[in-house]
Design brief:
Elements: E1 7-11, H1 18-31, E2 36-40, H2 41-47, H3 56-75, E3 79-84, H4 89-98, E4 102-108, H5 111-117, H6 123-127, E5 149-152, H7 158-169
Parallel strand pairs: 1-3, 1-4, 2-3, 4-5
């Protein structure tokens, strides 16, 4: 028997669809009676006074912040749905070790599609050398070795991703459907 899920982390490069899928999932969870909270990496950065950069060391500190918040939310009997780039395998392994019920969803997406979706204007300036610390360009994204599920977000619409993810999650969530 698989253990219950207490924390869902949706990871991948910027513009892979993490926040979109997280919003859809939180809505589905809530309509089914599950207390849940979206924990978005960009929003967490905005909450803190001491702003972190985007260099590798700052990204690791951001992961620690989000991990602490996700654990706190879970202790409140609320399911955190984390949407974060989470580029380093070492950080992901620490989360898996330190968060009981950690569930990792990796959204894989090719660089051409990431550039096409790039509302933040990160990729082309980074590829031209005008911007630094962009994961997938000058900071490598460690391919997850232990993701619970990997989706190709380039080939699936957000609603399709949600349905496939829901079919995997539903049996592992406490039965509270209304």
């Amino acid at each position: 028997m698989t253990s219950p899920i207490s924390s869902i982390w949706i990871i991948g490069c910027s513009q892979a669809g993490k926040t979109t899928l997280a919003k859809l999932l939180v809505n589905r969870l809530r309509t089914r009676g599950h207390h849940s909270l979206m924990v978005d990496g960009d929003e967490i950065r905005a909450v803190h006074d001491n702003k972190l950069g985007f260099d590798p060391a700052s990204r690791c500190k951001q992961t620690v912040r989000v991990k602490r918040l996700a654990n706190w939310v879970a202790r409140q009997k609320t399911l955190p749905v984390v949407s974060i780039v989470h580029p380093f395998e070492d950080d992901r392994l620490k989360c898996r070790e330190e968060i009981p019920g950690y569930f990792e969803v990796y959204l894989k997406c090719g660089i051409k599609e990431l550039i096409a979706r790039d509302s933040k204007k990160l990729y082309l300036p980074a590829l031209r050398g005008e911007k630094k610390n962009v994961v997938g360009v000058d900071i490598p994204y460690d391919e997850p070795g232990y993701a619970d599920i990997t989706f190709d977000s380039e080939k699936l619409r957000p609603e399709e991703l949600l349905e496939q993810l829901w079919s995997i999650l539903k049996p592992r969530l406490l039965d509270v459907e209304i």
